[in-house]
Amino acid sequence: MTSTHHLGEQGTSRLRSHVAGELERTRRRSAALTDAVDEADLVRQHSPLMSPLVWDLAHIGSQEEIWLVRDVGGIPAIRPDIDDLYDAFQHKRCDRPQLPLLGPAEARGYVRTVREKVLDVLDRTPLEGRRLVERAFAFGMIVQHEQQHDETMLATHQLRDGPPALVEEPTPAAPADAAALPLEVAVPGGPFVMGTSTEPWALDNERPAHEVFVDDFLIDTTPVTNGRFLEFVDAGGYDDPRWWSAAGWAYRQRADLRAPRFWRRDGDRWLRRRFGHVEPVPPDEPVVHVSFHEAEAFAAWAGKRLPTEQEWEKAARFDPRSGRSRRYPWGDEDPGPEHANLGQRHLRPAPAGAYPAGAAPCGARQLIGDVWEWTATDFLPYPGFAAFPYREYSEVFFGPEHKVLRGGSFGTDASACRGTFRNWDFPIRRQIFAGVRCARTPAPDEIG
Ligand SMILES: [Fe+2]
């Protein structure tokens, strides 16, 4: 794939400083997540669902070495002996603490050495002419990879026992109009362009752009709140198989689910544990830590359903005035703090209705940031999909065992979140920062 538009010398140096800035910003986040706890804590497994934090750190360095030092840079391997230890396909998370992993000091030294070499590689690599480096793609892929592991490490922090270790800024209050927002907004039927062929750092599974016809639908204006989810709990929703799929009900029985993960009943109220704080469940905040099965059961109880992935992306990107799909709900500009709750600035979702400046043309809010939103759709390739740069990025995960999540959470970085970005996970997953937004098909006389 060659580009017809050349960067030029100035364009190249601007792109190089952008990449260097993103690498640096991302590394500060990884350092904050791993410096927040002591060495014993770094090597401990806080949950069989997760790796020790020190595994994630060295794995970040290992992927950066493999792609940017060896492949892009053509430099001999620094630590070929550890490739296998940090290959996520070789060892399940629950087995990783038993491996002869690099210790905290060694892991920190290793990622530093890799990064020094990568900055040299960045300085001398033309950022066009070869698809892997076109518009700095491989660097962007590595930035996103590190940010994704930072979100995973954030989930490990949430699973960790003990006092709060992370700092955060207070979350914004809901705007004055939040209470008056319509519960749902309508998206009229018609075609729209889904996916992208132009976003330079988009990953293979977001490509290519293709037209999709979507029928009329209604979608919730905001993610489902704790208060609303509590109505489902109080109505006995967890005990009524009518609302659950067969697989969902089997899981609910097996895992003895009664409420979102990290909730605990305390007399007549519910408390939740959030990064070491125990606090009453805030009713106005989007519910988080629910599996696909719980999201689906809630939607059925509410007389609705989960949106398909196509519906979600159309609600988030389609601008009926121009007929175009935007990069983000609010337009084409990169996310700013006024648009969305992203990047671990806050360690919780913002109240439902927050971020009016981030609203989509259809009126839906908080599609980007706050909580990942489960969709009804299996993770599958788009028509014309081609694996790049390797099959293990997405292709090996395609199939009905994974459901698509959209929109990112408060723990997702802006660089790893776009209107086209697709996340996927098992339908039983609860430790991720996932919530619910419902949709429904209108009755025949509802949309004019
Ligand atoms: Fe990874």
Automatic annotation (TrEMBL):
Sequence positions that bind gamma-L-glutamyl-L-cysteine: R93, C94, D95, R96, D425, R429
Coiled coil residues, start to end: none
Domain Sulfatase-modifying factor enzyme-like: 183-440
Cofactor or coenzyme needed: Fe(2+)
Gene3D superfamilies given in the database record: dinb family like domain, paralog of FGE (formylglycine-generating enzyme)
Positions with biased composition (Basic and acidic residues): 312-322
Pathway where this protein functions: Amino-acid biosynthesis; ergothioneine biosynthesis
Superkingdom classification of source: Bacteria
Family: Belongs to the EgtB family.
Protein name: Hercynine oxygenase
Lineage of producing organism: Bacteria, Bacillati, Actinomycetota, Actinomycetes, Pseudonocardiales
